Amino acid sequence: MRLLPNGAQERKLRRLADAAAKLWNELNYERRQQYFGARKQGLSERASLAHVDLKGTRKRMVPNYTEILGASAWAVERKNAEAWSSFRGLLKAKSKGKLPPWIHPAPPGYNKDRKTGRRKPWLPVHHEMYTVDPEAKVIHIPRYNLRLRFAGDVRWHGKQERMEIWYDEARRAWYASIAVKVGAETTRNGTKPRHIVQGGRRSIEVARPVGDKVAGIDLGVNIIASVVVGDGAWIIYKGARLKEDYFHFEGRIARLESEAARAKSVGDEKRHDRLRAEVRRLKRKWAARRIHLYRNLASHLIRGLWGRGVSTVYVGYPYEIARDNGNKYSVNIWAYRELIGAIEAEAREYGISVYEVYERGTSSHCAYHGVEVKRSPRGVVTCPVGDHRLHSDLNGALNILRRGSGVLVRGNLRPLSFIVDHNGVAPANSIAPTKGGNAQNPGVNLGPQGPG
Ligand SMILES: [Zn+2]
């Protein structure tokens, strides 16, 4: 949530968050010294880790900060120890050959801004130090005598864990995130309702699948998602709004970047830095809008699939976009991971499983005959077997569904078409050109047997 501190609160937050960041760096410095000291003596990465004295550094350094930070000083140490432990886990996975070769685990880094070299304000708050009032929208931290107002809704209900507060330089705003053990109503030593966050949702899974149907999803640029359900439904989501946003933001960013370059060339560092900061802010804004749009799509899609009795979803990896159309536009507009993440998060709430299908050729081969198809720029593929035609987005989704689940849908498929917007998802007119044909009647020049 976004915090809305007043002037005095903001100064206090800065002081606390700088102390926490400083403690992180001091602890981490000692621990890195111990680690790299052992490395210099020729020890292996894993053997060097045994020389990092977490306990000793904790005992020696944390008490210097408890006067200013209270229990949060221990939360800083805890978080740093977690980072070292995750480094250990990665090294272990690497030694067992479980990590991809391009991942090189490294010890935890320092808290500092890459560009300015300054510490970034960051404050972890121990779970017993604060309470949240979702009605009044106030976070109360008695130890710091802070009552911080916040914007936004508290989504989850459950036992609160560590809260982290940080300052976002690009948005010039303070944020807090609270980890919630969803569904847990009591703490270890019985009920302690003041450390329960009273959010809206008590369970991550809000529903169970009502059927066992399957669906295949083909992700793309103009049609963000083309979905075929095992029962023969075909649903498409158009991405016109995403495209408009892309051109709007790209244009503004390009103008600012060239202005920044001009400022640099005449030695106006101050103006250059200001413009670069504005570029970063716009990029963040564009990403936020895109993610919001993806969430709208995912929520509409998954609720719809759940209503149709789908329990398993297969999503194709978009090799074709990565390869064929790898121009600036499609690469930038395309945030595959963000979209998959949104779909997976939504599916989790409905108990629907999501699998990714990493097979090539899902859009270049006929779903019915497995042979290579010719693609016209108008989004229609022509299969040489029987010379039938299919909409390419339908062909892709059919292939993904078949390769994922073995289910091949036949039937007179007509798309249900939607347009994804920032404030929701609305029905749109069909995109399927009637000439393009469909699964049962794959268009003109159908061979003697047809595809079936
Ligand atoms: Zn075919």
TrEMBL record:
GO biological process, one term: transposition
Domain Probable transposase IS891/IS1136/IS1341: 208-321
Coiled coil: none
Gene Ontology molecular function terms on file: DNA binding
Segments for region (Disordered): 430-452
UniProt domain Cas12f1-like TNB: residue ranges: 336-400
Keywords: DNA recombination, DNA-binding, Transposition
Family: In the C-terminal section; belongs to the transposase 35 family.
Name of the protein this chain belongs to: Transposase ISC1476
Source organism of this protein record: Conexivisphaera calida
